[in-house]
Amino acid sequence: MHAPRPTPVEIPDGSVITAKVPPLGPSDRDALFARAKKLLAEKDAVLVAHFYTDADLQLLADESGGYVSDSLEMARFGREHPASTVIVAGVRFMGETAKILSPEKRVFMPDLDATCSLDEGCPAEDFISFCDAHPDRTVVVYANTSAAVKARADWVVTSGIALDIVEHLTAQGESILWAPDRYLGGYIEEMTGADMLLWQGSCVVHEGFKASELEELRAEHPDAAVLVHPESPADVVAQADVVGSTSALIKAVKDLDSEKFIVATDRGIFHKMREAAPGKMLMTAPNAGFGATCESCAHCPWMAMNGLQNLVRVLETEENEIFIEEPTRKRAVLSLNRMLDFARQRDRKVRGNA
Ligand code: SF4
Questions:
Q1: Ligand 1 touching residue 93 (CB < 6 A)
Q2: Is the beta carbon of 302 within 6 A of some atom in ligand 1?
Q3: In which band, very low, low, confident or very high, does the pLDDT at 346 lie, cut at 50, 70 and 90?
Q4: Residue nearest ligand 1's atom 7 by CA
Q5: Is 17 close to ligand 1, i.e. is its CB under 6 Å away?
Q6: 280-301 pLDDT, tens per residue?
Q7: Are 148 and 124 in contact (CB under 8 A)?
Q8: Which atom from ligand 1 is nearest to the alpha carbon of 117?
Q9: Distance in angstroms (rounded) separating the CA atoms of residues 267 and 197
Q10: pTM for the model
Q11: Residue identifier of the C-alpha nearest atom 2 of ligand 1
């Protein structure tokens, strides 16, 4: 089955990307859902999906024994699951991370053009020159980077563990070179007081959240709690009741007493938030200003390139496999494993103190 290619559209930074997979009618949707489920079982494949992907993919991952999570947990789940094939519904660096951690498995993605503005904004060659110019700094990179950038790093971090790792490094007297997200880097710098040199990348979705419009929305809904992902600008983060990773924001919807939330992250996350706290009211934080027409408003255009259509096509054709050169993979796995080991020790300590 070959779904038609989506139409290219303009996004705020001016680059042309591909619009979301065309919507499906209910009977096509049900047929594709059932076909995908059957193919996953036949091909000994497991589906891991990111919180920002289409709700049908998240439902399929859950129903077929797969997993829906953030990028790190997706890769960790893929590594530990016995299936010989991992299908990653998300963006390119997530597929690469799964392959770095599971070189013996075949890893596929519905669309290999699904990338990320952070990854795109940090080309390996330029980044390596930047690191070489600052040899005295410990190189810490966010998970949203290519395998080649991870291979040059000392540490890979996710938004859920970045603060703890930077605090740990600062306590050892290390100064840091951080890439690629300048907003997340700035937030960590402010929270930890660390000495950080920041690469100037940004996420097209989170950078679009607007502080003044958020203030107006809060004034209209004074009873709403504000949840913000730290890839957002500082003046948006400053208005948050909770700042955190995708997993932390889902937990906040469940745990907080509030019945109403303004959410400054990709609206794909609403699927899991609704599952976690049915009946609570969720609003997206204003993005790109009131009245703006914006194809990617609060929804990542690359995440939207994943759908049931191209998932089924990949399972049928075995196209879109991820390959990484072994020398790059071997270096990248060191910086990823450093984070995983740190997370294990931290979690053990927390359990010990409980
Ligand atoms: S939401 Fe932002 S950080 Fe996440 S994949 Fe899309 S562009 Fe990258």
A1: no
A2: yes
A3: confident
A4: 116
A5: no
A6: 999 999 986 444 545 457 899 9
A7: yes
A8: 7
A9: 31
A10: 0.91
A11: 203
